[in-house]
Amino acid sequence: MVVRELERITARRSELDALAEELAKQLQEVQAEREELLIADKGFASRAFERSLSEQGITLLRPSMKRAAVRPGEPMLKKVRQLIESVNDTLKGQLGLEQHGGCTIEGIAVRVAQRVLALGDAVWHNFQTGQAVSRSLTAYDH
User: What region holds the Transposase DDE domain (predicted)?
Assistant: First the structure.
């Protein structure tokens, strides 16, 4: 009886070892696929900072300094920045984000989330109804 129990434990241990190897392999595959992109301003121009991000699997996309060579991906930064500024303007202007009225961190977070969700809902609705400009909130102004 002790021999059979020992055989079962040994068999179970080999199954667990095989499972651990498979999980380790899958983890490596996920980590290899999980490349992240951080978009930043020129103020983040530091070799040590970029090296630290790179070690974590994060690619830094930022404008080049004045006399430096053009960095990879830099031409698309102007469009991304314009989009971000436009969304911020919409949140502040039409959705009143700066006059949120929140007194606590939680209250402010809820009010910011409301504005972002409202903008997302308007974009989705405009897209679904085939509007020419998907981010326009003119139809919702009262």
Answer: 25-98
